[in-house]
Amino acid sequence: MVKEVHLVGLDNDKFQVEDGQITTEEIQKFRRLVRDVCKTFGAQAIAEEFCEEWVKQRKREESVCLQEARSLKLRHRYFDPDTLERKRLGIRCRADVYQELWIECGDQNPPKETLHAAYRKEDEKRERCWLEEFRSLNVWPVVFVCGAYHVEWFRPLLESEGLSCKVIVSRWPSG
After folding, report:
1. What's the CA gap between 13 and 45, in Å, rounded?
2. Cα–Cα distance measured from residue 30 to residue 16, given in angstroms and rounded to the nearest whole number
3. Which residues lie below 8 Å from residue 146, measured CB to CB, with a gap of 6+?
4. How far, in Å, are 6, 52, 110, 173 from residue 168 at the CA level?
5. For residues 150 and 158, what is the distance between their CA atoms, to the nearest angstrom?
6. pLDDT truncated to tens, each residue of the chain (175 aa)?
7. pTM for this one?
């Protein structure tokens, strides 16, 4: 069995929850994208860089991907660790990383290269968590929705672990 992952990179997580941040028309376009990718590649599951905690923070019960998975009778899973799990795993949020670097730089903006490298270090920890979620889910093919920034980094990690990975769109909606 080929273990396929189809990556959909999002420009912004505002598409993942229908909470009024964007228009209904934009949400519908995202729904169509997810539905079309699932049908085209015979997906058995939809997973996403999101967690239930974030859905609740946005005063909703379900993400758009969960709703689409349900309508297509597919499995769904949130892959991102919530705040407590991140703390347990030693994964810092971007605000904490920035604040730490700000202090290290004598209350000045840290150099962009330093900041991006520090963000990347934390993102790598999260991406390793996602990899474990794929192993645990063990349903193929999977459509995985994540931030566009992760696509270029996560694809090689998946492939290095023996998973077939196709980038369906690297940055939606702009490309």
Report:
1. 19
2. 8
3. 7, 8, 9, 10, 48, 49, 130, 154
4. 6, 25, 34, 12
5. 12
6. 789 999 999 998 888 888 878 899 999 999 999 999 999 999 999 999 999 998 898 888 899 999 999 999 999 999 999 999 999 999 988 788 888 888 888 877 888 888 888 888 989 999 999 999 999 999 999 999 999 999 999 999 999 999 999 999 999 997 5
7. 0.90
